[in-house]
Design goal:
The chain has seven helices and twelve strands. It is an alpha+beta fold. The strands form three sheets. Strands 1-2-10-7-12-6-5 form a seven-stranded mixed beta sheet. The protein has a three-stranded antiparallel beta sheet with strand order 9-8-11, with no helix packed on it.
Length: 287
């Protein structure tokens, strides 16, 4: 696949080997929906009834109000575009649902997910190596057009319901007016854009896909995206760093350190090079 070719739609694929997936989509920074890697989503452990019966002790505070998991689920089921459920409702799989960790296999591409390697300093890893569950309801949408933090790849698997994903390629970044501080967020409301304030957004071209239960969307590093939910919804998300986006990941950490700890930032530059070589060598030994 030509990485310079304009992408007009998100392909749906099955039967891909890890090498095919990496060489075709990851290396070329192309989003794709994988349709055959999430049989686990049909387990009764992911039904609303099971979750409410076994995890109602979990609480979330959203906009100053605290909800139990059962209340979140009921609100998401009753959600409408006019009366939306609180969103986003994010739970950490490792902390909140530790019994589920073994039930959800890791999809690895590029030979390893460096975020979960013991070679990566925990100081860096803990900032983005969560495995998360998102609950939502009809009419909910992610509030900000954004790039995922620190230049990670993102893998999202739909468990319940359908969710629209709206994506924009990295070369369109100037159309979204990110500022120097929030470089991964856009102030543009894509549903009601202010063209007087953001005239370049007229040039933006989105590609969309609707993710269905049992399907997994790969969003490459640097792609802008947001979502819209059609019905009661549960989505699993995990981030990835591999050889393709290692430098981007470490450069983002360096820029953050430069702002907050300028005297230590130079260490990160050396760490990027040394550990990048260590990861590359280790991964070269894998089949």
């Amino acid at each position: 696949m030509d990485p310079q070719k304009k992408i007009s739609k998100i392909e749906r694929c099955s039967g891909l080997s890890e090498n095919e997936f990496y060489n075709t989509y990851v290396k070329n920074s192309v989003p794709v929906v994988v349709t055959d890697k999430a049989e686990w989503t049909s387990s009764e452990k992911f039904t609303p009834e099971f979750l409410k019966s076994n995890y109602n002790h979990l609480e979330r505070t959203i906009d100053g109000k605290t909800y139990t998991l059962s209340e979140i689920i009921d609100l998401c089921k009753a959600s409408t575009p006019e009366n939306r459920a609180p969103y986003p409702n994010i739970y950490d799989l490792n902390r909140d649902f530790p019994d589920y960790v073994k039930d959800i296999p890791l999809i690895v591409y590029g030979k390893s997910n460096r975020l979960f390697s013991r070679l990566l300093l925990n100081t860096f890893a803990k900032r983005t190596n969560q495995r998360q569950l998102f609950f939502g309801g009809k009419g909910c949408s992610f509030p900000i057009l954004h790039i995922d933090y620190l230049g990670v790849h993102t893998q999202l698997t739909q468990i319940i319901g359908e969710k629209d994903f709206i994506l924009y390629s990295p070369d369109q970044t100037p159309y979204f007016y990110p500022d120097e501080v929030l470089r991964n967020q856009s102030p543009v409301n894509i549903n009601d854009p202010d063209y007087d304030k953001f005239p370049l957004f007229k040039n933006a071209e989105a590609i969309t896909t609707t993710l269905k239960p049992g399907e997994t969307l790969f969003i490459p590093s640097g792609w802008w995206h947001t979502t819209y939910i059609h019905n009661f919804n549960l989505t699993y998300a995990i981030d990835h760093v591999n050889a393709y986006n290692w430098n981007t990941f470490m450069d983002e950490i360096y820029l953050s350190a430069k702002q907050n700890h300028p005297n230590l930032a130079w260490i990160i530059k050396g760490y990027k090079v040394i550990m990048g070589r260590a990861f590359n060598f280790k991964e070269s030994l894998l089949n």
